[in-house]
Specification:
The chain has 363 residues and is α/β, with parallel strands linked by helices. It has 12 helices and 10 strands. The chain has 3 domains: 68 residues, Winged helix-like DNA-binding domain superfamily/Winged helix DNA-binding domain (Arc Repressor Mutant, subunit A, Orthogonal Bundle), CATH 1.10.10.10; 49 residues; 194 residues, 2-Layer Sandwich (Nucleotidyltransferase, domain 5), CATH 3.30.420.10. The strands form 3 sheets. A 5-stranded mixed beta sheet has the order 8-7-4-9-10, sandwiched between helices. The chain has a 3-stranded mixed beta sheet with strand order 5-3-6. The protein has a two-stranded antiparallel sheet with strand order 1-2.
Length: 363
């Protein structure tokens, strides 16, 4: 809100003088004999202040700042409880954030009191937040963003070797023969979990966690370059019977866009290593698909980013979110109906993008 000061000049409370006005103050002082090297000015600050419609204290402060460091810009308003973090503390804070991006400021503070140099009661969480965003030793500025969770088990030597074989094998396949199967959970209400964490600007926030899901309703889905081939839902978590029932239903169904059978000879079905996909259920499915001349390929462990179906689920959830808005009074039946409607919006163009974003499927 603009106001008029006692000198008749418009100003906004809390907003510093413009760069041009500050520069004009400096030039007037120099033109009237001001010496930056010594800081001496034999004139009167009040005369310049009266000419420009500002206070004499403002003129004096701008001149002193210019003499000290040559800066014309206003000082940054730090405010709050000043930080007492040592360089070692800052290094430890950055280490903690790199190891666990979701760690809270209270948890960091507890670690600093126990293992760092920080005395109790000397630094606030506000000062710690400012340090994380702007003062860490690497020089990187951290921001709060959506968390990317990566399982530790993904990086075993055996799984990394299989990953390379998997990529090389599918890279040689006709992408139009590939069909990806996956499940996801629809939760009502959303389970409380940390999905955001800090990381340097321009970098993803990645945290190693053990995988655990407890969906209210399970969505089973198979997709290809033409779109979503077939989908169904299960109340609660899906078991081996639900897994096999999905493929039985898919066998008797047609692709909604091509009107061709969902399961065709020559296709390659790709799925993850969920326990229900292996063991007896996997053996029964393997025999069933062999009779149909369809190949079954398992993905590397804990590699959901290799599955285009994950991106289908991402768009599905986005469409559902905007459809429901802020309405929290939603039944499971309404959620499922909206889910099917959102899947109808997945186009071949979407699927082409989902295939390409995996990084190993060439279309």
């Amino acid at each position: 809100m603009w106001r008029v000061n006692e000198h008749g000049r418009l100003y906004a409370q809390g907003k510093p003088l413009s760069h041009d006005l500050r520069l004009l103050i400096i030039n007037k002082i120099i033109n009237n004999g001001g010496n930056r090297a010594t800081g001496i000015f034999h004139g009167k600050y009040t005369d310049i202040a009266r000419q420009l419609g500002v206070s004499s204290a403002v003129v004096s402060n701008i001149w002193k700042r210019y003499c000290e460091d040559g800066s014309i810009s206003p000082k940054k308003n730090t405010g709050g409880n000043p930080s007492h973090l040592s360089q070692g503390d800052l290094q430890y804070v950055e280490f903690l954030k790199q190891q666990k991006p979701t760690i809270t400021y209270d948890e960091i503070m507890q670690q600093l009191h126990e293992f760092g140099d920080l005395p109790y009661g000397t630094t606030s969480t506000t000062a710690l937040s400012e340090a994380v965003r702007h003062r860490l030793p690497s020089g990187k500025e951290y921001s709060f963003k959506k968390l990317n969770i990566v399982a530790q088990e993904r990086f075993t030597l055996q799984n990394m070797a299989y990953t390379q074989l998997f990529i090389d094998y599918l890279h040689e396949k006709d992408p139009y023969t590939l069909k990806f199967f996956d499940e996801c959970g629809l939760k009502l209400p959303q389970h409380a979990s940390r999905t955001y964490g800090h990381a340097p600007i321009g970098e993803r926030a990645i945290e190693l966690q053990r995988y655990a899901e407890t969906p209210n309703t399970t969505v089973n889905l198979m997709c290809s370059l033409t779109g979503v081939d077939y989908a169904n839902t299960v109340n609660g978590s899906a078991d081996t019977i639900d897994f096999l029932r999905f493929f039985e239903e898919a066998y008797h169904s047609e692709n909604p866009r091509t009107a061709r059978p969902v399961l065709e000879p020559g296709s390659v079905i790709v799925m993850d290593n969920c326990a229900t996909h292996h063991n007896q259920g996997g053996q029964i499915l393997q025999e069933f698909l062999n009779d149909l001349e369809i190949e079954l390929v398992y993905m590397p462990a804990y590699s959901p980013d290799f599955n285009p179906a994950e991106y289908v689920f991402g768009k599905m959830r986005t469409v559902m979110k905007y459809s429901f808005g802020n309405n929290t009074d939603i039944t499971v039946a309404q959620c499922i109906q909206n889910m099917y409607t959102s899947l109808e919006l997945i186009s071949p163009s979407d699927m082409k993008g989902f295939f390409e974003v995996t990084g190993y499927l060439q279309v």
